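Service request form, structural biology core

Requester: graduate student, group of Dr. S.
Request type: structure prediction, single chain
Budget code: on file
Notes: please return the result as structure tokens.

Sequence provided:
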Amino acid sequence: MSRLFETIARYRKNIDFSVPIDCLIRIYGWSNVFLHTGIKDYSWKHILVKDYLKTFSIGKEGGFNVNDGISMPKGVLTAIVSELEATHPKNARLITFQSEARLSGA
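Core staff response, request fulfilled:
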């Protein structure tokens, strides 16, 4: 996941996120700490995370569509996938799926 976030972050200027990607990366880090150690540090974090992920899940204000969380040109998605494939170990299988992001352009 960290490689995925690093790759996406390099293209952040060309991607419209319903919440800042830095916040998503931070939430990912918090969840890793909790998942792997069981340590919970602040009781307010789950409220913040829920609000951010709700906005990310249904899009920006007035969106209410699961596909509104991320918008980008198709070429940017292609570049991200190509970069991930190029750095993926040869004996491992890269699992791809139909994008749920709003894609524009050719």
